[in-house]
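Renewal narrative, Specific Aim 1. Our central claim is that a sequence can be written position by position from structural information alone. The example that follows is taken directly from our test logs and has not been curated for this report. It begins with the structure tokens describing the chain, in the order in which they were read.
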């Protein structure tokens, strides 16, 4: 007789759960859950492998990283021309990177423009850190911008003066984007509030006319008007710098689009929020600044950042009025007879720089959404 007590059963061995999470289970459930899905997955995978192989071959294995100098001291692009269509010519980037980043800024003073780029990046980092969201942030902005313009202009402490006509490259892009969005945002809030006003019909009419007029005109038209038409209406001897006129055009244009985004957030709020504020006896500005506006801005973080990204890229349109931003400086670099025909590599580098800035803004917006919990179901 078995030693096991009658009626007692040996416990069954636990079977593995096929639904446990894991890369193999995920791939089977999402990529190979049927014949058609498997065929599509394999086709896309084959295309990606083929594309990556070609990219690695072009960008790294067959690439030309440097070229020798001629007897005249200029780069010899012969090897790049022989490798055209087979390998990238990164030697052109090595030769022209300073002009791409700093434009016509004096060569021996480009360290000043480089420091300004670092200060801009530091300012963005500090502004994104919620620990600095207090009254000292405005002081940090003012102090940093004073240092940036002091370095760019010079004319003191032994620094040679550099007129704005010689500014160019990435500093110009950052100046236009930073000032354009920083000044357009508060203007857009005022315009959005004015457009929703019920007690000030004249203000509402002006705000509606401003938004509809600016949104109906291309940005390039505003830039041409600021550069060509505005000086005709100014008194003799009075003129504003071309960069300043372009900056004002950007601010006016961006504010009109941002105002509609803010207005959408205000319209999406339940009426109970404003009614509760009225019941507490708050006046209009107390109710707006403490109750409705913060909630509206939380709701529209994604479209706000989307608009910011769009206008950061639109700074390249200043090339139409002769301002040497990063894109214009790079296109000018391609006009060098030594590197004629080498354009793909320069556009790839530009695309990477713009993509890094835009991806950083997008990633930051997603982190803010998670922290403020604006995506949860209400």
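The sequence written for that structure reads:
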């Amino acid at each position: 007789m078995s030693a096991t007590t009658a009626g007692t059963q040996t416990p069954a061995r636990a079977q593995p759960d096929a639904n446990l999470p894991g890369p193999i289970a995920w791939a089977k459930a999402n990529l190979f859950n049927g014949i058609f899905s498997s065929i599509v997955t394999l086709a896309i995978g084959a295309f990606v492998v083929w594309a990556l192989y070609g990219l690695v071959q072009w960008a790294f294995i067959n690439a030309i990283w440097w070229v020798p100098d001629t007897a005249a001291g200029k780069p010899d692009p012969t090897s790049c021309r022989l490798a055209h269509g087979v390998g990238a010519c990164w030697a052109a980037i090595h030769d022209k990177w300073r002009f791409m980043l700093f434009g016509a800024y004096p060569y021996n003073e480009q360290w000043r423009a480089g420091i300004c780029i670092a200060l801009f990046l530091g300012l963005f980092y500090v502004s994104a850190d919620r620990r600095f969201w207090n009254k000292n942030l405005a002081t940090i902005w003012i102090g940093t911008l004073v240092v940036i313009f002091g370095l760019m202009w010079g004319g003191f402490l032994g620094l040679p003066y550099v007129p704005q006509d010689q500014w160019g490259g990435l500093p110009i892009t950052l100046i236009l984007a930073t000032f354009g969005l920083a000044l357009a945002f508060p203007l857009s809030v005022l315009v959005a509030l004015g457009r929703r006003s019920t007690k000030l019909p004249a203000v509402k009419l002006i705000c509606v006319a401003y938004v509809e007029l600016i949104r109906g005109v291309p940005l390039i038209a505003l830039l041409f008007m600021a550069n060509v038409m505005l000086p005709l209406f100014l008194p003799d001897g009075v003129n504003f710098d071309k960069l300043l006129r372009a900056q004002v055009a950007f601010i006016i244009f961006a504010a009109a689009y941002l105002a509609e985004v803010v207005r959408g957030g205000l319209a999406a709020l339940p009426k109970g929020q404003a009614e509760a504020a009225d019941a507490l006896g708050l006046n209009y500005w107390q109710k707006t600044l403490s109750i409705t506006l913060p909630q509206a801005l939380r709701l529209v973080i994604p479209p706000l950042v989307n608009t910011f990204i769009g206008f950061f890229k639109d700074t390249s349109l200043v090339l139409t009025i002769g301002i040497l931003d990063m894109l214009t400086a790079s296109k000018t670099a391609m006009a060098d007879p030594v590197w004629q025909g080498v354009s793909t590599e320069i556009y790839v580098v530009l695309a990477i720089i713009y993509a890094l800035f835009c991806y950083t803004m997008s990633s930051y917006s997603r982190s803010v959404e998670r922290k403020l919990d604006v995506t949860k179901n209400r």
